[in-house]
Amino acid sequence: MKITLKVWRQKNTNAKGQFETYKLDHVSEDMSFLEMFDVLNEQLINEGKEPVVFDHDCREGICGMCSMYINGRPHGPKHGVTTCQLHMRSFKDGDIIVVEPWRAAAFPVLKDLAVDRSSFDRIMAAGGFVSVNAGNAQDANNLPIGKEVADEAFMSAACIGCGACVAACKNASAMLFVSAKVSQLALLPQGQPEAKRRALAMVNQMDAEGFGACTNTGACSAECPKEISLSNIARLNREFLSAGFTAQAE
Amino acid sequence: MSNSKLDARIPEGSIDQKWTKYKSTVPLVNPANKRHIEIIVVGTGLAGASAASTLAEMGYKVKAFCFQDSPRRAHSIAAQGGINAAKNYQNDGDSVYRLFYDTIKGGDYRAREANVHRLAEVSGNIIDQCVAQGVPFAREYGGLLSNRSFGGTQVQRTFYAAGQTGQQLLLGAYSSLQRQVGMGNVQMFARHEMMDVVLIDGKARGIIARDLISGKLERHFGHAVVLASGGYGNVFFLSTNAMGSNVTAAWKAHKKGAFFGNPCFTQIHPTCIPVSGDHQSKLTLMSESLRNDGRIWVPARKEDAEAVRAGKLKPNDIAEEHRDYYLERRYPAFGNLVPRDVASRAAKERCDAGFGVNATGQAVYLDYASAIERYGKIEANKQNIHNPDKATIISLGKAVVKEKYGNLFDMYEQITGVNPYNEPMQIYPAVHYTMGGLWVDYNLMTTVPGMYAIGEANFSDHGANRLGASALMQGLADGYFVLPYTIGAYLSGEIRTKSIPTDHEAFVDAEAKVRQTIDTLINIKGTKSVDHFHKRLGKIMWDKCGMARNAEGLKTAITEIQQLREEFWKNVRVPGEANELNTELEKAARVADFLELGELMCMDALNRNESCGGHFREEFQTEEGEAQRDDANYSYVAAWELTGNNQWTLNKEELKYENIKIAARSYK
Ligand SMILES: Cc1cc2nc3c(=O)[nH]c(=O)nc-3n(C[C@H](O)[C@H](O)[C@H](O)COP(=O)(O)OP(=O)(O)OC[C@H]3O[C@@H](n4cnc5c(N)ncnc54)[C@H](O)[C@@H]3O)c2cc1C
Ligand code: SF4
Ligand code: FES
Predict the structure, then answer these.
(1) Which residue, among A65, A89, A115, would best test binding to B if mutated, counting the most B CBs under 10 Å from its CB?
(2) Are the beta carbons of B53 and A12 separated by less than 8 Å?
(3) Which residues from chain A sit within 8 angstroms of residue B69, using beta carbons?
(4) Which domains, from first to last, does chain B contain?
């Protein structure tokens, strides 16, 4: 197939960016979206130009590194799929595809399509853990956990930290990401002693990083490649509210 | 036979007492001193993240590095199937000894007994630790942990979290790491690449790192340096590893004096999605757990295979009697669950003989039709449906398979566009894991004092072949429970060493050399991209040092790699500048190291005149085509020492089996 790409190019965080148009004549439908970018980059290098910088690593939909905003949607047109798992058979001969980086104040562009998501790491450092040192643990089966609860915690834990939820949200809120971790740990008995503290600390850090407020539009969950549910946000709100009351009472 | 330069420092005593005794006698560093000791950890996969967080919990000052944008994205995240532990929760006769035995046998008797036993001993603690962190392992309705079985074993000891075990374990380790980052005990350097180690008076004292965003070179001091930088499967270009996985950190250590152990031991995984075209950038694994229920076959008649390749015949139209379930035929005892090396070679043998099935002839079928039917019948019984028709059975069976393997089937369809519920999957072996790596002693220290290697980066506990679900176990064992103790043996002697200022000439020199290499790469301004060279190297390695090797091919490969390396340094094109985010430069520096490693792998394969585990030399096989080991001459770890520019000498660590009787490895 023949594909026309309009790709955001930006030299560094402070530079002004612009779209560049590229034409590819031999795109196979078995290629992944990123393999098409490999072909583009090979072409650019051979022409003596600079290749497009984009983040990627596992190319299996699990590391959360790939992050392209394709035709106005994070990770492109297919539901429940990351950029790296998107294949060209989802497009047609002659298509024009617009590719941009995530856009959010808390995710500054580093170069071309790569952004800085270290704000997520700082939110995790603020409270996204159970306080247990290596060697502290009791025997694993001393703590039975019902299958339903374990499965629900697992669904929340499936978040890959890609940031598509932020990119999809008109307020650039990180609520879905934060709530997924808060829920996972609040559901499990191991995480409950610190549940309220955790919710407060993570939300405070999220605010400090400049993410926007959540106005419940649901765009995050609709575009999340791991289909993280909105019910996580409801759970976070509960934890956060009761944590706020407890803090005031003290 | 053992070489005096190699002291494995295996403690005295009986095998089941060595570790316990050692732990209670290893010198400790008191808390006040720990605060002044700095440790560098390169890598934040399972091994690195667990080591960095544990060392910080103990009170050391830690600096951790990774090249991804977050420690959570290390390649460990992609592990699917599970993690082994000798918990014996299923009451099926598992024990520390059995896990020890299975690992030694699975590794074809080429691993060190003392290390493997220790691994089995601490395996249970890993599961306890992960559960305490909130890792959501699969559970039974009663609330207890669930297990599944993996290749090469006859007990159920694999813990898992759907098909995302690596992700869940790494997120657990990452959360511990972030906790220490938040407390100020770990300084994290993401998007940083280690470019060299710095040695002072023969000891590892720091690293030179490149900030991948600004391109700036940085000097970092440490009383000790821990490498947890993963495996080097990407030397083959195509592998199941993440795109950025590389050998650079380990290779730079090797060039500064660390011996490289068993470089030719590579694991080729039997069930991966076959190559679809020249654009292919990586290969995708289909978890080993699929072999629990799937049956592997090729057409029994050549004309059928040819018709399939030409697109004239569909697999579902080939009658049962014209199918060759070759694993069940050759290995009735283990059937489709033989270990990986055996399954991979058997697939290659059939394809080479002309029975392969996709357009390239490099694929076999993994068929779920009989599993769907079997599960369908069971389900119909459960639901009290009498005399169900075929369509009902199939639809019930598909639902069961979806519950068990749904995410893998979806991934297959996403990549190939074929629905595996209706048509058998096509699979082919692909490079997956490297058993070889930096040689380490019992303390996990390399031959350079103060430099450690953990996880896939070391030559590891897996001998010549790793069993499924044992890499995650080893990475976390090293990081949570082994290194934090053994490093005390060295650091207790370093409490008087003050931080060395990084204007020391060793740092200045090392940085200047790194800068020179980078400038050279940028200034070649040749005509061919980095990928061009990487793909050519991969093809040489796959054809001549892959699933089957022979002396003649290996000799040719060595010459070809030398020529390719020369061409690379004359003609590679690296666009852009050194002082900016430059992904081509990152790749170029890594491929430069792969071009040296490839030669050593071929030399090692050429030296080992036997077949064992993943190393199959065509000259050394039985009449039935099984691997033929030579214990009299090759029962050793080959530890290669760099003695000049691409010049190596071989040191041997003799392997002594005092607790396990060496036997032929049979899965018939
Ligand atoms: C698809 C797949 C599935 C697998 N499934 C299983 C399974 O089910 N069970 C099992 O036991 N094993 C499995 N494995 C194997 C297992 O995942 C790996 O062996 C293991 O995760 C390696 O962990 P590690 O910590 O040693 O290294 P990695 O996870 O590879 O981490 C390497 C780290 O080093 C860093 N690094 C590397 N070089 C540099 C440098 N120069 N400078 C700075 N940082 C650097 C990286 O950024 C990264 O943080 C699987 C492997 C693959 C490919
Ligand atoms: S919640 Fe979904 S979209 Fe947001 S970071 Fe996690 S996986 Fe990505
Ligand atoms: S590259 Fe890892 S999720 Fe896409």
Answers:
(1) A65
(2) no
(3) 55, 65, 114, 116-118
(4) 272-431 (3.90.700.10), 503-629 (1.20.58.100)
| Contact at CB, A130 and B131, closer than 8 angstroms | no
Gyration radius (Cα) of chain B, Å? 25
- Measure in Å the smallest separation between the Cα of B353 and chain A Cα atoms: 27
Q: Which residue has the tokens 């980066």?
A: B457
> pLDDT per residue over A131-162, tens digit each?
999 999 999 999 999 999 999 999 999 999 99
Per-residue pLDDT band for A245 (boundaries 50, 70, 90) equals: low
- Backbone phi, psi, residue A217, to 5°: -85, -20
Nearest CA in chain B to A78: B414
Interchain proximity B133–A129, CB inside 8 Å: yes
Both structure tokens of A215: 């106005």
Q: Which residues contact B544 (CB under 8 A, 6 or more apart)?
A: B553, B554, B556, B557, B560, B602
Cα-based angle B194, B200, B204 (whole degrees, multiple of 5): 45
Find tokens 């030397």 and name the residue.
B235
In chain A the domains, ranked by start, together with CATH numbers, are 3-111 (3.10.20.30), 118-134+141-246 (1.10.1060.10)
Distance B465 CA to ligand 1 centre (A): 17
Q: For residue range B130-175, what is the model confidence (pLDDT) as tens digits?
A: 999 999 999 999 999 999 887 777 889 999 998 899 999 999 999 9
Judge if ipTM > 0.85: yes
Question: How many other CB atoms are there within 10 angstroms of residue B149's CB atom?
Answer: 19
User: What is the per-residue DSSP string for chain A?
Assistant: --EEEEEEE-SSTTSPPEEEEEEES---TTSBHHHHHHHHHHHHHHTTPPPPP---S-SSS-S-----EETTEET-SSTT--GGG-BGGGS-TT-EEEEE----TTS-EEETTEE--HHHHHHHHHH-S----TT----GGGS---HHHHHHHHHHHT-----HHHHH-TT---HHHHHHHHHHHHHSGGGGGGHHHHHHHHHHHHHHTT--------HHHHH-TT---THHHHHHHHHHHHHHHHHHH-
Query: Per the CB < 8 Å rule, is A190 touching B87?
Result: no
Q: Residue written as tokens 């598909």?
A: B398
CA separation for the pair B32, B35 (Å, rounded): 6
Ligand found nearest the CA of B593 = 1
| Residue matched to tokens 């706020």 | A244
How distant is the Cα of B648 from the closest Cα of chain A, in angstroms? 33
Interface test with B, best of A124, A200, A226 (most B CBs within 10 A): A124
Whether chain B has a CB inside 8 Å of the CB on A3: the answer is no
Which residue is it, tokens 């001549």? B544
How close is the nearest chain A Cα to the Cα of B352, in Å? 25
Give the catalytic positions of B in this structure.
Answer: 340
pTM of the predicted model, to two decimals? 0.97
- H or E segment to which residue B343 belongs: helix B340-350
